[in-house]
Amino acid sequence: MGNTDKSCGRLSEQPPVVELFIHHPNFMQFTEEELNIFSGYCVDKKLAEGEILFSEGECGHAMFVVKKGGVNILKMGYLGETVIATVNPGEFVGEMAVVDGSPRSATVKALLHTELLELSLTKFSNLKKEHPKIAIKLMDLLLRLLSLRLRNTTLKMLKK
Length: 160
What we know:
160 residues, Jelly Rolls, 4-stranded antiparallel sheet, 8 strands, 37% helix
């Protein structure tokens, strides 16, 4: 007869978020335990294809990490919507709202069925108080990502 203990092997299994992100370049500085703690401060969010995550001008109260699927970042212009970036699994979107508290600078729409982790401003504040080492790693990551995006935007502007 086979093993009837359904918990057998579960201790060695990684939580789903850890499995998704442990080898992603954005999360290489995090340990498995830190990723597990980080994900505990987040809630899962699902979007259908074409569903809007948030719209330009809305108050921002959370940032998101794409788990599966992807989203487009859109800006309205004279000629309608323009895709300014695509955000893929392991990447952040909406982080500016938790950094500076300003309204959303763009609209974000799901490319296809998309799963995200949502980290609210309140939960981010709790993370900073309760796990400052993890929060600092996250803030370092966000600073690098924002810096990279600013450099890329500058290059695009120079090419025009």
